[in-house]
Amino acid sequence: MLTFVSMTKNEASMGRTVALVVAAGSGSRVGAGLPKQFRRLAGKSLLAFAVDHLIRAGIEDVRVVIGPGQEEPYREAIGARPLPSPIVGGAERRESVRAGLEAIAAAGGAERVLIHDAARPFLPGAVVRRLLDALETHEAAVPVLPVVDTLAHCGERLGESAARDGLVRVQTPQAFRFDAILAAHRAWDGGLATDDSQIARAAGIEVAIVAGDAALEKLTFEEDFVRAEAMLASRSVSRTGLGFDVHAFAPRRDLWLGGILVPHDQGLAGHSDADVVLHAVTDALLGAIGADDLGGHFPPSDPRWAGASSSLFVEHARGLIEARGGRIDHVDVTILCEAPRIGPHREAMRERLAAMLRLSLQAVSIKATTTDRLGFVGRGEGIAAQAIATVRTWEDL
Ligand code: CTP
Ligand code: MG
After folding, report:
1. What's the confidence (pLDDT) of residue 6?
2. Which atom of ligand 1 approaches the CA of 120 most closely?
3. What ligand 1 atom has the least distance to the C-alpha of 29?
């Protein structure tokens, strides 16, 4: 049988860009506690921010280097993101990068590598594009920013000032032709290196410069975290999502509404527990983050969801929001039915929904109305529910 190869070998390898995120440090300058790369800003770890930005910039293959014994905080920090197992790094950044490069080489190598600090959570996609463009003509490229403050030597007191002309601050990600940086690391004499461009230059590699970005600043001290939180807050946007669902009454079924078993002479027809309220809430949450809809995430054809508690769906949507660093502010529901009466169950539903969403009671509202005996609801053929959710997320960089 003939096989058609649609790409030349060269085109195929062009796509092999790997991002190596080093996250094996101890964050000693921030102080004791969880290493900084695993700490959270607005509910999302620095490492997860860095990884998400690389993926959003089009780098599909992201490898993370962690320190020995950091498997547990790594898992917590990375959540459900489908990444390959982390690589174990060393006592110095250089050793962590080396371990990462060797692991990539052992797995078949790459064409290009972007080496990035997990401690730099905000990575504008434009920087990645500039770096990859520069790699077309150079073996290495780094993002830089000008030095704006006066530079001076310093002991007990201020010493001589130093000329800042021609000096820049070098950031990450740093982009390299993979084979070149691997050879440079292998040839390094073992001295201290705070980044990979030093190691590249020592091996005679010319390093191109592209414009860096203030957002890429590394978080090093406690006050950097305060500033990063404020920066995120200033980019906070509020989005609302709308959900609507209808289920027909069916005999010999339990009636689940808002996560509560409501005594009634019939239940609702449906694949799962048919909780029309939770379905509307799930769709409202998904809508607020532009993440498809209930049927897209939980196809009715999937036997796994037969008879499933719809609280699973709500919790899944909440997880998606949290994974993006978002927060649910408020959920409001209207239930449309002639019977049963919702009033007696309203507070129990609110409490159940608040628990599912991890919200306070004030942030959850349940209302009910009849439709004046009009339409399918008025004829008692089923129950409809509407929900609206307000979610705070962050503008992409
Ligand atoms: N890093 C690493 N392996 C090390 C040391 C550092 O992978 N042995 C990583 C850090 O996790 C961080 C990046 O290199 O993402 C930049 O290092 P730095 O800001 O110095 O982080 P830490 O070494 O963790 O912090 P500190 O120097 O304050 O202890
Ligand atoms: Mg360090």
Report:
1. 40
2. 15
3. 28
Boundary residue ending a domain (187, 212, 234): 234
Residue 14 is predicted with a pLDDT of 41
State the DSSP code for 342.
Answer: S
Which residue, of 234, 256, 289, is where some domain finishes?
Answer: 234
114 CA to centre of ligand 1 in angstroms: 17
Spacing, Cα 119 to ligand 1 middle (Å) = 7
Range of the domain at 286: 238-393
Token pair 């799930």: residue: 282
Q: Which ligand is nearest to the CA of 64?
A: 1
The CA distance from 260 to 214, in Å, is 50
97 Cβ below 6 A of ligand 1: no
For 146-157, the DSSP string reads E--S-EEEESSS
- Residue nearest to ligand 1 atom 6, measured at CA: 25
- Looking at the structure, tell me whether residues 177 and 34 fall in a common domain: yes
Q: Is 27 in the pocket of ligand 1 (CB under 6 A)?
A: yes
Query: Residue 216 carries which DSSP code?
Result: G
pLDDT tens profile 257-311: 999 999 999 999 999 999 999 999 999 999 999 999 999 999 989 999 999 999 9
- Best of 51, 93, 197 for a ligand 1 pocket test (most atoms within 8 Å of beta carbon): 93
How many residues does this entry show for the chain? 397
Name the pLDDT band for 80 (thresholds 50, 70, 90).
Answer: confident
Going through 26-120 in order, the beta strands assigned E by DSSP cover 40-41, 44-45, 61-66, 87-88, 112-117
Q: Domain check: are 194 and 168 in the same one?
A: yes
pLDDT of residue 117: 98
The tens digit of pLDDT for each residue in 322-347 reads 877 789 999 999 999 999 999 999 99
Instruction: State whether 28 and 58 are in the same domain.
Output: yes
What's the predicted TM-score (pTM) here?
Answer: 0.76
Q: Enumerate the β-bridge partners of residue 112.
A: 17, 177
116 alpha carbon, closest ligand: 1
Task: Quote the ligand 1 centre to 81 CA distance (angstroms).
Answer: 22
Q: How many domains does the chain have?
A: 2
d(CA 88, CA 77): 16
**Is ligand 1 within 6 A of the CB of residue 240?**
no
Query: Distance (Å, rounded) from C-alpha 206 to C-alpha 210?
Result: 13
Q: Whose CA is nearest to atom 26 of ligand 1?
A: 27
**Residue 189: other Cβ atoms inside 10 A:** 7
